Automatic annotation (TrEMBL):
This is EAL domain-containing protein. It comes from the Bacteria. It comes from Verminephrobacter aporrectodeae subsp. tuberculatae. Residues 115-200 form the CHASE domain. Residues 463-595 form the GGDEF domain.
């Protein structure tokens, strides 16, 4: 319960008011004195600055003007004639920076000047009779003294000043007569640059350089800042020949500092109020001793509350807090968690960090303390301690210098912050950089590091090393049918099963997707084959993945060091090639890299590299093979066939380079070129009225999967101006059935744009009839493998007949490929096949030859019609 002191009598209020008035008057006097001192000091500083720059300017002008003395000596020495003036003046110019030109004016008319370049127009200039400079020149002649005229617009152009020295010569009788002037022209910009006037703005001053014009008596500004110095400026006078220049400076913020004045007034007011308050306290102290005692007690309680609050704040800090001197001696310890200390707190006080910490950690602590002492703070250093209850624990140290105490011995506050989780997170990031996040197997980066080390060891010891490239067979079916989550679980199970087959020195890595790579050091070919066999056997055992029992097989390719390669990348590439050979051989098997595979890989690489430049080098061309109606033998279309003739490789088969183009992604650019070229050729022949109703272009599976295919087709047709109905795109069964939904969407877009579609090589794939009936297919092309043996093979005849009947039932046309004999033609015509394509009707021809073929066919048709009529 607080005690309220009685109010002092009204008459006692006069004492605080008197004290306030006196203190306010003293404060005002002090503020006024300080303001005057500050203003005087500032004016002195500005005056010094003005003096520095004025002296520099005067020295620069004086140095330039002093050249007149040398010129005058030359004139007098030659009695008015200076024969080598240009050579002498040119040598003098470098010694007088700031001079734009110097010259001789006998009788006041400029006759000689250097440098001549840029000043030739001043030759003949009459200085005494010039309207602008005549008065200044006359004043120089009359005074007989060096005069400085300007600033003025120079004849040479620009603003400058001219220093003229009148020269008088004595004749043999000692009579003095006016000879003329020596003069120097000084560009004002160069003189002002020497005086460093722009630096005045950087030094916080506004300036104005001015003079009193001798002809008008008015002030003339020579140079000034923006804004210029005002009237209340500090000035320094430059004494120059025939006049004076004045440099005036004023601080950019003005002479006064309103903020400082306001602060001083506020401090003075606060001082007056404080003195009045102290007087009031003294009066209250005299009148209310008991009330004062209560106030002291209340203040003590407040201090204690503040200390308790500070203590509570310190207690809220979860990390250990130490007070340590510069020698590393612990003065006090605070920690809410005893398990974070290397020893009990009372055992640490008074001991040096070198006594309680490992040497490396103690050294780090001392370095942090010394850094904090010199800089005021230190942070970021990390140490690791083996704590009795927590084990290995990481701390981040932060230290700050503590204000010196009464004994003047510096101390520092050290905070040790529980970053173990942060370090563990960093280690997890490092782990993710080297391990596959799904299977926790080494990734390709870590595998490459180990491979280089093992290869170096194998080379030193003369041993072999095996790399096994493993790919799961038909893994895509698991993802497509059961989802990627089940697929991921299966991959983890595969990884664990493979790990169980390896030695401690072996490395299993997941490269991505369903591809794994095994690195087997100190392994020869026979052992590598045994490992591959064990892997295939292990993969053949079912995997229990949630409710599903999944069976999978694998294909394994093996490459050996040093026989198959001497680097990790080479071994990996060749093991990959061997794996693909195993897949082509039927899957669920392993195979070794062989010389034949190497030759095939080299050939494939050669084809790929050459194909990348084939398009831009014009090595690709289109041949066209006619498609003929079996009923009328008239041309109903032509198929565009891609051909590649390389200058070194010769004629490369499409069966060889098309798969390379598809695997490398080049098929998209090549396919667009084929389509663009074919529709342009078709449009040209259409304009020539040649008998070609439609042109057919093959699409690869890669093109069919590209989402921009319909737009690309429409763009090519639009650029060529060919109607969409005259274009037929051929796609294979595999391209259609790999992703029926996407294929159907693509076909609907193309069909909607008016493009006709046909299915090429029909009968060689595994088309779903339910999907086929939904496709926007205009025509089925019967594969030539069924047409080739129609004359002798009853099965081929039955298959071809069934395809034709099915197409007719679905409203589709049919075209037979590879028609070469009249017997084949007759059978196909009897079965109702609409068109044929093959050597019987014509071989594939280049564009110009095919154009001639079309022209001949048109002429023959016209002749037949004429005969018939």
């Amino acid at each position: 319960m607080s005690v309220v002191a009685p109010r002092p009598p009204r008459r006692l209020l006069a004492v605080p008011l008197a004290v306030f008035a006196l203190a306010a008057a003293c404060a005002a006097a002090m503020v006024w004195t300080l303001e005057r001192q500050d203003r005087a000091q500032l004016r002195a500083q500005v005056a010094d600055i003005a003096g520095d720059h004025a002296n520099a300017l005067q020295r620069a002008i004086g140095l330039a003007l002093s050249a007149n003395n040398a010129l005058m000596a030359l004139v007098r020495e030659g009695q008015g004639t200076v024969t080598q003036f240009e050579e002498i003046g040119t040598q003098m110019l470098p010694f007088y920076p700031g001079i734009a030109a110097m010259g001789l004016s006998p009788g006041g008319v400029v006759r000689q000047v250097v440098p001549r370049q840029g000043n030739a127009d001043t030759i003949g200039f009459d200085q005494l009779n010039d309207p602008r400079q005549g008065a200044e020149s006359e004043r120089a002649r009359e005074s007989g003294q060096l005069t400085l005229a300007g600033p003025m617009e120079l004849v040479q152009g620009g603003l400058g000043v001219v220093g003229r020295q009148p020269v008088y010569l004595e004749d043999d009788l000692g009579q003095r007569s006016f000879w003329g002037f020596t003069y120097v022209t000084i560009r004002l910009s160069e003189v002002l640059a020497a005086a460093r006037l722009p630096q005045l703005i950087e030094r916080g001053c506004r300036y104005r350089l001015w003079r009193i014009r001798p002809d008008t008596g008015h002030e003339q500004t020579i140079a000034a800042s923006t804004p210029a110095a005002s009237a209340d400026a500090v000035s320094r006078v430059l004494t120059l020949p025939n006049g004076q220049w004045t440099l005036s400076l004023i601080p950019a913020a003005g002479w006064g500092a309103p903020g400082v004045l306001a602060l001083r007034c506020a401090v003075g007011l606060l001082f007056a109020l404080l003195m009045a308050y102290l007087a009031h306290l003294l009066v209250a102290l005299k009148a209310h001793e008991r009330g004062l005692a209560h106030q002291v007690a209340q203040r003590t309680a407040e201090i204690q509350a503040t200390q308790q609050q500070l203590r509570a704040i310190i207690d809220a800090v979860p990390d250990p807090l130490f007070e340590i001197d510069l020698d590393g001696r612990c003065c006090s310890v605070h920690s809410q968690r005893a398990e974070l200390l290397v020893a009990p707190a009372d055992a640490l006080v008074g001991r040096n960090v070198t006594q309680v910490l490992p040497a490396l950690a103690a050294q780090s602590v001392l370095e942090v303390l010394h850094e904090a002492q010199s800089r005021g703070w230190s942070t970021g250093r990390q140490i690791m301690l083996d704590l009795p209850r927590l084990g290995s624990t990481w701390f981040e140290l932060s230290a700050a210098r503590k204000p010196d105490g009464a004994d003047a011995r510096p101390r520092l506050i050290l905070l040790a912050r529980d970053i173990t989780q942060q370090r563990e997170a960093q280690e997890r990031v490092q782990h993710l950089a080297h391990f596959d996040p799904l299977t926790d197997l080494p990734n390709r980066t870590l595998l490459a590091e180990r491979a280089r080390r093992h290869i170096a060891d194998a080379q030193a010891r003369g041993e072999q090393l095996a790399t096994l490239f493993l790919d799961l067979d038909h893994f895509k079916n698991v993802n497509d049918s059961l989802g990627h989550r089940v697929g991921d679980i299966l991959l983890v199970a595969v990884a664990r099963r493979l790990e169980s087959l390896l030695r401690p020195q072996d490395t299993l890595s997941r490269l991505g997707g369903d591809e794994f790579l095994l690195l087997l050091p100190s392994t020869h070919a026979a052992h590598a084959g045994e490992v591959a066999t064990r892997i295939l056997s292990a993969m053949a055992q079912p995997f229990q993945v949630e409710p599903y029992e999944l069976s999978t097989t694998a294909s394994v390719g093996i490459a050996l060091y040093p026989a198959d390669g001497d680097s990790f990348d080479t071994l990996c590439q060749r093991a990959d090639a061997a794996m693909y050979q195993a897949k082509r051989g039927g899957r669920n098997r392993h195979g070794f890299f062989t010389a034949d595979l190497q030759a095939r890989s080299v050939r494939t690489l050669q084809i790929e590299n050459a194909l990348r430049r084939a398009l831009e080098r014009g090595q690709l061309e289109l041949h066209y093979q006619p498609q003929v109606s079996l009923a009328t033998r008239q041309i109903v279309g032509a198929e565009a066939l891609l051909r590649w003739r390389h200058p070194e490789l010769g004629q490369v088969s499409p069966a060889e380079f098309i798969p390379v183009a598809e695997n490398s992604g080049m098929i998209l650019a090549i396919g667009e070129w084929v389509l663009r070229t074919a529709v342009h050729d078709a449009k040209r022949w259409l304009d020539m009225h040649l008998p070609l109703p439609a042109i057919s272009v093959n699409l690869s599976a890669v093109q069919c999967r590209h989402p921009q295919l319909p737009e690309m087709v429409a763009r090519c047709l639009r650029q060529a101006g060919l109607p969409a109905r005259r274009l037929e795109l051929e796609l294979t069964e595999s391209a259609a059935i790999d992703d029926p939904a996407a294929a159907l969407a693509m076909m609907e877009q193309l069909h909607g744009r008016g493009v006709r579609l046909s299915m090429d090589d029909f009968g060689t794939g595994y088309s779903s009839l339910s999907a086929l009936k939904r496709f926007q297919i205009h025509k089925l092309k019967i594969d030539q493998s069924f047409v080739r043996d129609l004359d002798a093979d009853a099965n081929d005849r039955a298959i071809v007949s069934a395809i034709i009947r099915m197409a007719q039932a679905l409203g589709m046309q049919t075209t037979a490929e590879g028609v070469e004999t009249e017997g084949q033609l007759e059978f196909l015509r009897e079965q109702g096949c609409d068109a044929g394509q093959g050597y019987l009707f014509g071989r594939p021809l280049p564009a110009d030859a095919f154009e001639a073929y079309l022209r001949t066919h048109r002429d023959n048709q016209a002749t037949a019609e004429h005969v018939g009529s």
